[in-house]
Request: fold
Amino acid sequence: MRSKNPNSDPIAADPIAAAKRKSVAARSVGIGNRCKVCGETRPNALIARSEPMICHECRRRSEGRSIYDQHHVAGRANHDCSIPVPVNDHRVLSGEQCKWPKATRENRDHSPLLAMAGCISGFFDTIVYLLKKLLLWIPEFLEKLDTCLTSLYGPKWWTRREFVELTGWGS
Ligand SMILES: [Zn+2]
Reply:
């Protein structure tokens, strides 16, 4: 049921419709803008025309509200499975659902085939989200650590005795 409170967050009531409206807003946010508090850069996560620029998560925090939303993975019309995600990620995931065919997204007649399509697309989007969230930070960390170890111990640092004893890589 939709809240009549004009100050309530529309994404909580209808995340896809809100994301569609926000796609227009995202264009007005512009590329290269970032949240002045946390550095968030994804356009869907930024609040258009906020001054200074701020993201939805930082606004929720400043208001003492939860930063988590329930994301309907396959779309509300296709499956009731939902997972808690931070609001900025919810904005981005809902933006991905807006790229699905409208008939699948809305599934007005409750077609089981369109529901299956929604489940597959939602699973795919969520796996990609988790891959980015859980794995994408690691390569940069490893590259920086390699640079650090090379500057400390020289090239081929992994062949030093202490590392061989630790890892067994040189044995
Ligand atoms: Zn922020």
About this structure: Residues 35, 37-38, 40, 54-55, 57-58 surround zinc ion (CB under 6 Å). Helices lie at 10-13, 15-29, 56-62, 87-97, 102-106, 112-135, 137-153, 161-167. Confidence is low (pLDDT under 50) at residues 1-12. Residues 66 and 167 are 43 Å apart (CA to CA).
